[in-house]
Specification:
Blueprint: E1 12-16, H1 21-34, H2 41-50, E2 56-59, E3 63-69, E4 77-89, E5 98-108, H3 113-128, H4 130-137, H5 142-146, H6 162-165, E6 167-168, E7 173-174, H7 179-189, E8 193-197, E9 203-208, H8 209-219, H9 241-244, H10 258-268, E10 272-277, E11 280-286, H11 287-294
Parallel strand pairs: 1-4, 3-5, 7-8
Antiparallel strand pairs: 2-3, 4-5, 6-11, 8-9, 10-11
Helix pairs in contact: 1-2, 3-10
Length: 297
Amino acid sequence: MRLTDLLTPARCLVPLSATTLADAGLALVEALAADGVVADPDALRERVEEARPEDVLGHGGRGFVLHYRTDAASTLALAVGVASRPVCRDFGDGEKPQCGRLVAVVLAPRRDAARHLQVVGALSRLWQKVELSTALEHADTPEALAVSAVWHDAVLEPQLTVRDLMTTNPRSIGADATLRTAVLDMRRSGVGALPVVDEANRVIGLLSERELLRYLLSHYLPRAGGPPLGGPPGTAVRRTVRDVMTRQVLCVAPHQPLAEVASLMLNKDVERVPVVREGLLVGFLTRGDIVRKLIGS
């Protein structure tokens, strides 16, 4: 499959009449709905208006890829628009807006996670190539945009597995190590979590910044109407990783499709997962690893 297989003039908007990213997304969704590939237009409009950060990939100065894997989509579909002037995504809090003239919307049913990820990745890499994205910006009609030779340069990568992205030989720690040792190790190595393993290298827990913060909040910060749970000042309590780690750990296997695991991590709100083979730790995968691969950086 190539991106050209998903594009028709009816799914191209030139010019794309919008001044904000939200308006651009809704306009492209309307084009897809009019072309008969949206099972529930109202549900999809509501999803777009929610403006979830995970639904948007922005490439500064070039454009955006809005992607939705939802039951509101009846099939894998793509719509692309070229705005006359850059549309912007406003972050608020004084942060500089992100703007661009190219906007794409990718729809996929929940069952089509692999193709969805392939299409989003191909578009993101295309947006980053200045000479190709500039050529798309010069399209002056929907027909010219749909048949642009640029789309032939956007190759969909083969389906990736966890093995393709995971960090091999990840850092880990034992359950009986002191909490201080674990925190210093995390700081020195620049990681946000450590798998906790036993003597046989089997995963028995996970220590992340989330567990550390929860522990600090419950043991050392003052409680309303009482002293901190950590004890009087000057008392030393030897805490181990076992005292703080979570034992409810989502683990994945090296051969699992990346799209399947990415969807699972989003649904479970998990930032990182140990990768195991026959129960033994062989790798580590984070959301950041997936995003960096998706945008080709």
